[in-house]
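debug: dumping io for the single-chain case to check the tokenizer round-trip. Nothing else runs in this session.
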Amino acid sequence: MSDKKKLIAAAVMNIIIFLSTTGIMISYFLGNEGEYHILPMQRFWLFTTDSNILCAVTSLIAAISEMRILLGKSEKIPAAAAVLKYMGTVAVLLTFTVVMCFLGPTMGYVEMLFSGTSVYMHLLGPVMAFVSLVFFENGIVLKKRMIPLGALSVFIYGIVYVTMVIFIGEANGGWMDFYGFNIGGFWYISFATITLVSVGIAAIVRLAYNRSGKKKTGK
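debug: decoded output
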């Protein structure tokens, strides 16, 4: 596939990611209760929602960069845009991983996680983000120091979740433990595990991104 076709494919997928996520966010305020039946604003407590929003914003930035190249106004995707897309991709891939390895077995894959708009949020969005980043957008080399940055959004959300669930608590206006990460009081194990998993995902995505870029350039 030529570089131009890759840019077009990447731009199209990034626009789809942005429009799909935006449409789903709007639908929450128009009667779409989804599988969880919670208030629209409570949707933003969920990492699924937050990770997809981050991915949508970074995908839009990437799409704009790609369209500028196609229009002859730029020569390459800015490094900052590539790193941001990397961060958004790692975030939604953690969502996918947690769904497949933890929430699916405990809550049910079809009933709670792969029906309605959750199909996109948990599966289609993460897959498109990964494919577009790794196979069509590998224009720079991601250094090892970018791995913690890739997992930064997960770490920040983890701090917020622990604060709202453990230190404030539902009785005092915080959040209920809707992910079940404090079962048995072992929230610190869950926090450490999720952080390490996100770092692992960031490392794997970086490796796949760089290897795909080497094949394209022959370097």
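debug: round-trip ok. The chain is about 70% helix and 0% strand.
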